[in-house]
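Moderator note: this is an archived Q&A kept for reference. The question asked for a predicted structure of one protein chain; the sequence and the answer are reproduced below.
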Amino acid sequence: MGDPAPSNQKLVRLHYAAFACHDIDGIVAGLDPDIVIVVHDEHGTDTGELIVGLDAARAFFEGIAEAVTNTTVNVDVLRGDGNRVLAQIAIGGTIRDTGRSGTIPAVHLFTLHDGLITEIRTHRPDWRHYGEPDKSDT
């Protein structure tokens, strides 16, 4: 059996393409039924937010699609090593509630098995606070 890294990298690129288009069905189609998503951001806890299973994953991605419009994903680095893919990206968009827009950096570590994403670990600034004034000066 050959190295799965190239095909896994392709699957991650498809995931990002679906994400950028708010194609929730496309996102979910690439996820394992027992998907685990761990979200770490600067406002998170030591363990991060834990999302388990397709229904929870669908709700997670739907929440992002409802909150952010004009979504873009620029992949800066994509490295595969067996069943793992490391992605360094920039996610852009406009927050619907505030109208603020911009781009935030993120690092995602994907684990894949049999052509499906089984785990996503995210490390990023909290997009919900993007562009808010620095409150430390008040």
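Archived answer notes: The helical segments are 5-20, 24-29, 54-67.
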